[in-house]
Amino acid sequence: MNRSIKIAIKNWNLTSRNEKEEEVIAEEPLSIRVQGKPYAVVMRTPGDEIAHVAGFSLGEGIVDSPEDLNDIAFCDGEDTNVVAVTLKAPRQEQIADIMDRREFVSQTSCGLCGKEIVKDLFQTIRPISDGVRIDIQQAYHCLETLSDYQPLRNKTRAAHAAALYASDGEQLTVAEDVGRHNALDKAVGRLFLDCTLKQASLLVLSSRISYELVQKAARARVPVILAVSRPTSLAVQLAAELNMTLACRAKKGPGLYIFCGEERLV
């Protein structure tokens, strides 16, 4: 499946019109099934489906480690938009409440609002330890150079990106997608399946920081998030409760706005 598609457009340049072709980012539904039951449908850019669903499953609390998985696979070959997750028996018992929750509402993708979310999530996600320290100049460089690793955005002008780095600034992975949540799921999922997620200390996002992205990063145990745009109030509240660091590009000139956890950026 293609990640972008060429379409014919009319180009108006203030004085005339002409026809040309431009790339647009592909967007298709991905149905995620868990233990044979529909769990969620997300709109995403095709590609990296297995990593995407692995990262999604971690963010949702369906799995805690790769050992919880029996399998993640396409239902009818790679040309389909359905991926099935099967869990080992002990994990099935541990998440019975998640699977039975009303209407299968996704915790990280849609539908929930209100400050009660922070209280609920704080009860299910452990706060992150204080050990990590990251050079602030290096972290800022990672944020400022993110666009260098966005070929799909450069082609379509419509893709979000999520990049994960080690504490020394080494880039571990970067993923792009039409959806910012999907980009993060794909990046996290790759490292999760490779059993290297523990190396990730810094997350850099091309978007604003919403509470859902803080939740996904917290589930992945990534303590520092930097983004191009500012966080929401609920994102700051949740990050502060979970002992995380949030920062974004400053409004004027080079620099960062640090909203919480400033001690990690040294």
Topology:
Blueprint: E1 4-12, E2 17-25, E3 28-34, E4 37-44, H1 49-60, E5 69-74, E6 82-87, H2 89-94, H3 96-100, H4 116-124, H5 136-144, H6 151-156, E7 160-165, E8 171-177, H7 180-193, E9 202-205, H8 211-219, E10 224-227, H9 233-241, E11 245-249, E12 256-260
Parallel strand pairs: 3-6, 9-10, 10-11
Antiparallel strand pairs: 1-2, 3-4, 5-6, 7-8, 7-9, 11-12
Brief summary:
With 266 residues, this protein is α/β, with parallel strands linked by helices. The chain is built from nine helices and twelve strands.
How does this structure look, described?
- The protein is an alpha/beta fold.
- It has two domains: 85 residues, Ubiquitin-like (UB roll) (Roll), CATH 3.10.20; 129 residues, Cytidine Deaminase, domain 2.
- It is built from nine helices and twelve strands.
- The strands form three sheets. It has a six-stranded mixed beta sheet, sandwiched between helices.
- Helix 7 packs parallel to helix 8 and helix 8 runs parallel beside helix 9.
- The N and C termini lie far apart (43 Å).
- About 3% of the residues have low confidence.
